Every structure is written in C-alpha cells, then in structure tokens.
Amino acid sequence: TKNSKESDELLTGRFSKQYRALFVRPFTKSFTQNLMTFKIVSTSEIKKPHFIISAAKLFRLPLLLFTVVPIAVLMIHFYFMKVSVDLTSGWFALSSLLFLHGAVFCFNDYFDHVGGSDVMQGPMSDKVIQRGYFSAHQVLVMAISLLVVALGLAIPVFWVAEGDVLAIVAVAALSIVTYSFFGKGLKSYGWGELAVFLCLGPLLVSGFSRVYTGEVSADVLLYGALNGLLAVLFVQHRNFATMLGDNIAGVKTFMSRL
User: Fold this and answer.
1) pLDDT tens for the 258 residues of the chain, in order
2) Phi, psi of 140 (to 5 degrees)
3) Contact criterion met (CB below 8 Å) for 194 and 253
4) How many CA atoms lie within 13 Å of 225's alpha carbon, on the beta-carbon side?
5) Which of 200, 210, 196 is nearest to 167 (CA)?
C-alpha cells in the first residue's frame, strides 16, 4: 500500500543493493486507491547503458540550452560590447549554475517518482529511475551532492554580492523549491510554468548580469523573457505528453487543467 514503510523502501530502492523494484503500471486506478505493484528485478538483469550515458539522461544535457547556454551567450555579448566585467565572479556563477542544473533535475526526478507522477507514465517514461538504471535513493544522494558543490562554488559570488543580487537568488531558490520538491508543489496546482518563466527568464539573466557587469539593461531583460517563454513552451510540451499519468497520480499541471 502507498505511504507504508515497505512501499517507501521499494520506491526509493533502499530495500536492496542487488535488486530494483520497478513499478508496474496497473490497468485500473489502483494507484489512487493506495495499491501499488512492483516487479523485483536483479540489477544484473537490467540492460543499462554506460554510466556516463545514464548520468547524462539524469542531468538533462539538452536542457542546458535553457540554463547555462543563455549565460554563455550573455558573456559573449558583453565581450563584444566591451563591457567591463568581473570575470572571477562570472565564472564562479556559471560553474555553480552548471551543478545547480543537475541538482534541480535530480531532485525533480526523485520527488516525481516518489509522488507517483513519473511511475504512472509506464512505458512512456524515459527516466532513469523507472528503468532501473539508478535507484531513487541514489538519485537523491546525487542531487544533494550536486547541490553542495553548487553552493560551494557560489560562496565567492555571495561574498561580494549586494542586497539586490541576494534578493534575486532568494526568489529563484523559493521558486525552485516550491516547484515540485514537496511532492505537491506549484506544478501540481497549475502554477509551475510561472516558476519556470521566472527562474529561467528574468531572474536568471538579471542576476548574472548584475554579478558580472554590475548592472541590468533592458536588452538583457528582454533576452531573459524570451528564454523564459521558450522554457515554458518546452515544459508545456512535456506536460502534454505525460498528461494521462499526471491525472492518475493527482498532479494537476496547467496542461491537465486545460
């Protein structure tokens, strides 16, 4: 049954290091009736890709297009515009963002898996936890480790940052944490897209620009808004593909509500 000690150990993979408990999608709505079915499989029987490939899927390398690439574009833009920049803070911020990117998606996969929205996708799911490449517990450990590294790299930036930069970071952190980390976050109430737009749009570019150049221009904010809108469109596309499983799991995304 759901929310029992046994189901928690099976979902997270803490019950064994030699076996994986792969969720079997039922033909009925038994998941919403507190019933869950698992298939116990030896880790040696799971056809896993190379560790690097599995980690890349977990890390969501293509989605760097919405997180790290915009910052790299801004750095190139400022270089050709001959803007005075703080290279040290800029590179620390970019490095921190790279690890934060991985941590966010690891946390998201973990909580979506434990909350049920990912496990209900069945064969459609391409997540590494559902395929048994990593256990949910291993993904959680990775997420915490990546977050610690990201915070460590951000210390030099925070050390010299002014109040407005810290405020931007605080709002972005609040948006990230409330997106899905508590199982029923903003995503479940149809407000996830707002968090995505803010974090990958105005907050991302304005925070970096303030750290890197000391100011935020209108063209930077416009670029951030465009990047945020593209990220929202991508999320909508993903939510449309997983709409059935989200509904069964009780995750009412904006797309599900439409």
Assistant:
1) 566 677 778 778 888 888 887 777 655 554 455 666 778 888 888 888 888 888 888 888 888 999 999 999 999 999 999 999 999 999 999 999 999 999 988 988 888 777 766 555 544 445 788 888 888 889 999 999 999 999 999 999 988 888 888 898 988 888 887 776 555 666 666 677 888 899 999 999 999 999 999 999 999 999 999 999 999 888 877 766 666 555 555 556 655 555
2) -65, -40
3) no
4) 6
5) 210
